[in-house]
Amino acid sequence: TQLLEQSPQFLSIQEGENLTVYCNSSSVFSSLQWYRQEPGEGPVLLVTVVTGGEVKKLKRLTFQFGDARKDSSLHITAAQPGDTGLYLCAGVLASGTYKYIFGTGTRLKVLA
Amino acid sequence: DSGVTQTPKHLITATGQRVTLRCSPRSGDLSVYWYQQSLDQGLQFLIQYYNGEERAKGNILERFSAQQFPDLHSELNLSSLELGDSALYFCASSPGAEHTGELFFGEGSRLTVL
Q: What are the chain A neighbours of B99 within 8 Å (beta carbons)?
């Protein structure tokens, strides 16, 4: 059972377009992270969100943690080819087990 | 550069063989995590070590084992290899024992089993 479902799985867009990636769960998370992974490399941490309803901005990337801490979204404004990669959400379950779950991933390709 | 070093980058071997993957964590990090990434399975947590002791176990097969040495580097041993073990194996590190969720990943070791 996959606890963190990401959508869409694949996304191919033109440079300059906006996009949103979703990360959903029925479980509550203490914190949630977003990573980007480029081909041949390991995932790189982009952001951590901790508080329900929290919004964080990182240049053209906006991250939001759901009020109930069960979901998150990543919005990219004016996508660029350099944004191409695999985006992974991951979180620490709030159940006290400290279990860390990775999402299913979203493969983004931005065409010039 | 995350500061996490993994060797080898690529490894090709045959079924039934045994390999060892090595990881040096970021300076100061006491926890080391091993993950397996394959196309159809995503990123699967295998095992975590903290300061030399096993801390948490995920979906690690009995044919696989790991350890963390006094200098904090870690090794993942994969034995009786099967075709399905072909994957990218990532090591990650973090400062503490508890999972705060911020991991620093190495570049991975790509294992191909023929």
A: 92, 98-100
